[in-house]
Input
Amino acid sequence: MKIVLATRNAGKIAELRRILSGFDIVGLEEFPSIGEIAETGVTFEENALLKAHAVARGAGLPAVADDSGLCVDVLNGMPGVFSARWAGRHGDDQANLELLLAQVSDVPDDKLGAHFACAAALALPSGESRVVEGVLPGRIVRTPRGTNGFGYDPIFVPEGEERTTAELSPEEKDAISHRGRAFGALAPIVRDLLAS
Ligand code: IMP
Output
């Protein structure tokens, strides 16, 4: 059974293939007629669902989509769905991270709680859908450390760790990540829904 993952990111495709073994997971590159899908939702769930529905409609196949970001407690959960464009320009990881650190510069260390969140959605061409969320709790550190990962990884330390997620190996991060947890929670739902 073929499932389209609403991304062109090879890493995400490989990760979902590992979690949803037995399914033929393909990326958006197989469907060039499906253009960019604007992330107009104000929650991770909304964005994951709108992407999954758009791809399921466009491809005529079951589709999985995810949306993720960093939620900082003292910023009332921001950058949240704006994580990729927090400093104004989409995908400028360094500027996003620097702006966030400037915003919390006067906040005491013990008040720097944060979590990564990821919503993963499945939509069928019929319009039926499901969405689940995965979370990685932790805290922000003021000095970036590590070269693995992307985005806010150099300033995020998961609960029970001293290393940032940029200092973890890809395998270590995969095993605990918000994305891994969301895809892991979606997997039995996909199997149930597509088997029936
Ligand atoms: P997207 O869900 O791939 O669109 O990611 C949204 C944004 O959230 C990214 O551009 C990063 O800024 C941030 N983000 C999401 N997941 C991670 C992560 O695992 N590490 C670091 N930053 C992340």
User: Anything to note?
Assistant: The first strand starts at residue 2 and ends at 5. The domain at 2-195 is CATH 3.90.950.10 (Maf protein). The pocket of inosinic acid is lined by residues 67-70, 83-84, 96, 116, 149-153, 165, 177 (CB under 6 Å).
